[in-house]
Amino acid sequence: MELTLTEQNFEDLVLKADKPVLVDFWAPWCMPCRMVAPVVEELAEDMKDEIAVGKVNVDEQPGLAERYRVHSIPTLIRFDGGQEQERLVGVQSRERLELLMK
Questions:
Q1: How far apart are CA 100 and CA 102, in angstroms?
Q2: Domains in the chain, please, with CATH?
Q3: What is the pLDDT of residue 67?
Q4: 23 - beta bridge partners?
Q5: Alpha-carbon distance 1 to 42, whole Å?
Q6: Is the dihedral of CA 27, 64, 2, 22 positive or negative?
Q7: In a 3-state reduction of DSSP, which class is residue 26?
Q8: Residue 101 confidence (pLDDT)
Q9: Residues annotated catalytic, as ranges
Q10: Closest CA relative to residue 10, chosen from 48, 66, 50, 49
C-alpha cells in the first residue's frame, strides 16, 4: 500500500518511520511518472514488510518538493533513519528500485 504524503504527515510517516521509506515525487500530468507508477505500486505490495512507500504530488505539495530540491519528476528518494540516503530521477526499472531499497 502506498501512503499519500503531505506537509502535515511527512515527518511522522517518513522521517520518524521505523523502516526505510521510498518516496515518489510525481504529478498526474507527468507521463514518465505514470510509466513508473505501476512498478512503484508493485514494489510497495511485494516489499510491504520491509519498506514503506509514499507518494508526494508536487502540484499539491510544492513545499515538500522545494525542501527536497526536486526539480524533475519522477524523483524517487530512499529515506532511512529520517535521512535521505539515495535518489533516482526518471523512469526506473523494478530491479533498479529494488537495489535502491537495499
A1: 6
A2: 2-100 (3.40.30.10)
A3: 97
A4: 54, 77
A5: 9
A6: positive
A7: strand
A8: 84
A9: 30, 33
A10: 66
Q: How many Cα atoms are found within 13 Å in the side-chain-facing hemisphere of 60?
A: 13
Q: Peptide bond preceding 74: is omega within 30 degrees of 0, i.e. cis?
A: yes
Q: Judging by DSSP bridges, how do beta strands 83-89 and 75-80 pair with one another?
A: antiparallel
Distance CA 80, CA 17 (A): 8
Instruction: Answer for the pair 86, 78: CB distance below 8 angstroms, yes or no.
Output: yes
Quote the percentage of the chain above a pLDDT of 90. Answer: 91
Each residue of 14-43: pLDDT tens digit? Answer: 999 999 999 999 999 999 999 999 999 999
Nearest to 43 by CA among 79, 5, 96: 96
- Exposure string for 35-59, b = 16+ CB within 10 A, e = fewer: ebbebbeebbeebeeebbbbbbbbe
